[in-house]
Amino acid sequence: MKGISAAWPNARTATTLSLGGAAVLMVVLASCAPAAPSLTAAAWCDGFEQERLGLTARLEGKNLTRLRAAESVVAPAVGRTRAVSGISLLGGYQEALQAQRPDLTGAAMYLAAASGRPVTEQLVREVNALLCVATTPAQVRTIATEAQAAWQGMQARARS
Q: What does the pLDDT look like over 49-70, one tens digit per residue?
């Protein structure tokens, strides 16, 4: 928890779970204030190193700010509760789209799991801009369609 508390000063507990065969770190936060960008897109993404972020770099510094901003878009209620943070899921989303051959299905699953609201193409575009991830309109449609289907399935299972 030592490295985690540096990145998340409000972290109380951490656990690892499996999502589609990949280990995902979940952190319970006391609070997570939204961090929306007030900069131009170029300034917001300045210093972002496509395909060069390891796990540690992905969850600290400027990229942690990007992840928190994206989380405030997909799950606005998290910042007002003691809910489990989706930041590590959004980090997985970002990583899936940074690969030489982006994993759109994996990205969609990460986004669906992190989202507290329906996933639309507009939401995907907003999150991608906040995370400095470039995608084509076709990729945005694919991610939104797959993520929304997965999100609806998760909602249905949660209600049953």
A: 665 677 667 777 788 888 888 8
Q: How many domains does the chain have?
A: 1
Asked if the model's pLDDT at residue 158 lies above 70, the reply is yes
Residue 105 lies in a domain: yes
Look up residue 15 and give its amino acid: T
- Residue 121: what pLDDT? 98
On whether residue 3 sits in a domain, the answer given is no
Calpha distance 109→114 (Å, rounded): 9
Cβ pair 70, 130 in contact under 8 A: yes
Within a domain: 124: yes
Kindly report the pTM of this predicted structure. 0.60
Provide the pLDDT for residue 75: 78
73, HSE (Cβ side, Cα atoms, 13 Å): 23
Q: Is 21 left (phi over 0), alpha (psi -120 to 50) or beta?
A: left
> 73 with 126: CB under 8 angstroms?
yes
- Beta-sheet pairing, 11-19 with 22-29: antiparallel
Stated length of the chain: 160
